[in-house]
From TrEMBL:
Gene Ontology terms describing biological process: L-phenylalanine biosynthetic process from chorismate via phenylpyruvate
Family: Belongs to the class-I pyridoxal-phosphate-dependent aminotransferase family.
One Pfam family, short name: Aminotran_1_2
Chain ranges of the Aminotransferase class I/classII large domain: 27-391
Signal sequence, start to end: none
InterPro entries: Aminotransferase_I/II_large (IPR004839), Asp_trans (IPR000796), PyrdxlP-dep_Trfase (IPR015424), PyrdxlP-dep_Trfase_major (IPR015421), PyrdxlP-dep_Trfase_small (IPR015422)
Gene Ontology CC, one term: cytosol
GO molecular function: identical protein binding; L-aspartate:2-oxoglutarate aminotransferase activity; L-tyrosine-2-oxoglutarate transaminase activity; pyridoxal phosphate binding
Protein name: Aromatic amino acid aminotransferase
Amino acid sequence: MFEQIERVPGDAILGLIEAFKKDPNPQKVDLGVGVYRDAHGNTPVMRAVKEAESRLLKNETTKSYIGSHGDPRYGQAVLELVLGAQSPVLAANRASATQSPGGTGALRLAADFIKSQLPGKGIWVSDPTWPNHLGIFHAAGVELKKYPYVDADNRLDFDGMLGALQQIPEGDVVLLHACCHNPSGFDLSREQWQRVLEVVRERRLLPLVDFAYQGFGDGLDADAYGPRLLAENLDEVMITSSCSKNFGVYRERTGCMIMIARDSEQMENVRSQMAIVARENYSNPPAHGGAVVAEILHDEALATVWREELTEMRDRINGLRRDFVEALKPYGLDERFAFIAEQRGMFSYTGLSPAQVDRLRDEFGIYMVRSGRANVAGLAQENLPYVAKAIATVVG
Ligand code: PLP
Ligand code: TYF
């Protein structure tokens, strides 16, 4: 049977990890895969996470199943983090949380829910988007279409986006990045979110908000502006949340599928279906990451430590954005690349062509995705001049 199986190339982004490791260039710089790095290039375990884990190790009493919706303490903590502790949506008991294996697991739950409970509905994703979005909805058998997001001059194409949303058939699902758009780094302003809300309401679309970088843009609450606006002004919203980046628990697979319905009654109906979707995929989610997050968020002192660490990470990224534009000044390129300081999150669409990206890798050992996406967190004060000079060389 297997003799007919074709070999296919691996994930282009994850493949950069291997390629980078093999490169003997001592000056090499990894701007590839989207994990946070500190000033020394490490992705350390956060202090609040270490402390929570040591408490768990001491106090954990069982490894029995936690149920298809996961740990209710985790679910409640994530609902408050995402929607705000004072959210009218929570007060009205309109929101349900299902713990999932990462944001990816939540996206698969969303996709399977759409396929089984909203038959015939398609999903619209930004062009470009995280490549895994395409794979997940394809695998679930949901028809996928694209709306414009970045134009040929490497700018946010909001008019194109809005125009496309106005054409989407009633009831279709539209996937929006809450903040820190992956791959572009271009986010919507508050006015633009308001316009999106109006179109979604008029066209009776169902928003699915992917929230993988809460706290990496402008702050925990500021980054939640879009999802909260939609949740408070629409009857139905789906949100996929991830703790991978903001708690640095990538490999623990810690995410959440949030379903918001018109009232408590409909929310319970939706919730009962979501349990089936989870059960048919993996039965119960992994417990450890959720337990860590719940331990932190339910302890004010520990939560304060975590928020401080997250602020440090965000400030480092936003500082590097500004410093990188400065580093390009000696080459007269600061105005051309000024947008890098305006983009948010770990990623920047640099506007570099695949050929320029290839030259950066081959001549300078600088690795980024061929789309021109750079992980800003891979920069450091020591390599800024080197990277700036390399970019000046390949664009020059
Ligand atoms: N959505 C986006 C836009 C992402 O960039 C990621 C990052 O990997 C995810 C979802 C899923 O993250 P994870 O499954 O690691 O929680
Ligand atoms: O976009 C990124 O780099 C992160 C990490 O299949 C990632 O979201 C990349 C590819 C992938 C899974 C995670």
